[in-house]
Amino acid sequence: MIDKIKKYLxxxxxxxxxxxxxxLTLGSxxxxxxxxxxxARFFGASRSLDIYNAAFIIPDLLLNIFVAGALSAxxxxxxxHLLAKNEKEEAEKTATTxxxxxxxxxxxxxxxxxxxxxxxxxxxxxxxxxxxKSLLVLMSRxxxxxxxxxxxxNTLGNILVSYEKFFAxxxxxxxxxxxxxxxxxxxxKFGLLGLVIGTLGGAMLHLLVRIVGTAExxxxxxxxxxxxxxxxxxxxxxxxxxxxxxxxxxxxxFIFTNMASVLAAGSIAILSFARNFESVPVSIFGVxxxxxxxxxxxxxxxxxxxKGFLYHLKEAVKPLLIVSVxxxxxxxxxxxxxxxxxxxxxxxxxxxxxxxxxxxxxFALAIPAESFIHLLVRAFYALKDTLTxxxxxxxxxxxxxxxxxxxxxxxxxxxxxxxxxxxxxxEALVLFxxxxxxxxxx
Length: 442
What we know:
It is a multi-pass membrane protein. It is found in: Cell membrane. GO terms for molecular function: lipid-linked peptidoglycan transporter activity. The structure is a single chain. The chain is an all-alpha fold. It has 2 domains: about 1-35 and about 265-440, no CATH class; about 45-240, no CATH class. The protein is about 85% helix and about 0% strand.
């Protein structure tokens, strides 16, 4: 039996990559759970934790608009295409140019964000008082260092994915969480700024792991960087549509944070805890499967092999369906139980447990749809179509905002989870039918 399982897992690049990423992502989320347990015990569902979570909004939004998902959507297909065509030197020139231009771009964008942070912070959390808002501004400004670090780290990560070197790619989030956890004891000396120090330290560890991983790959840096290169321009061209759609998730939780800031104190913290729990199976299975299959889909698309493209896509669908539905049911029925076990006690009261458990149940409804969105979107990217997912996700964002606003008077904080489930399900179904039509024409 063990031999059969091993043979299955090692039977394809997808299974091997998915297995590595699933295992490492699970490790990262175990640490993430430990981090959240410590947050709950040290801070409870408090305004202090609200401020820390809100401080991520603007830096993460900048990173995800201009680098994170946009770079992945554009870089991997172009880089994989060059490798598939045996244009290794040109691929390395493109990678080198992107590696140095991405953090420079984030540095330039961070300057106006730093200057206008008082205004931006008011948009993020209009319900905060004067002193709370001042601390949020300071922490958000310091956190602007993180997108600069992650711009370089994410570029290295996409190089690793293209080479199907999944170990260093998946290991880096573990070290990021270790850094955040290390920041908790620093709060005794530096207050909430200790969490910022830990977070930035974790970001540096994230980058260091990927530097080591890339050094062990086949990549050679080729200078000078050339922003006029046709392939670099091709990456930028593919990035532009994705820039419009990538921050959808960040904008969604920007909207949720804005709405939660005027509810009871601790609402943002509870929103973060529930979302972190719900995102575990989505990341372990949805993101891992999609990331592992992405290079194979990109190569098949580059070679015009539609049959091979469909084979690899179907290879991920059945196991993803099983684990995502099972995860959804698990959190619906047992989510509150585990919230109580892990978070309950000390400053995290029974009322906090009940509020978090109910919100998690609503968010859990979205697990299958959100997992499949990651897979479907990667299929479009492999076909070098970064526009279609945007045209679907933007109306979805509008729908989420409208639904949340309408449902809050009835469902209070739970309106966030319910609106997210409805919009995610519709988006997944629309993407599926459009991809099916698109593939039938190839």
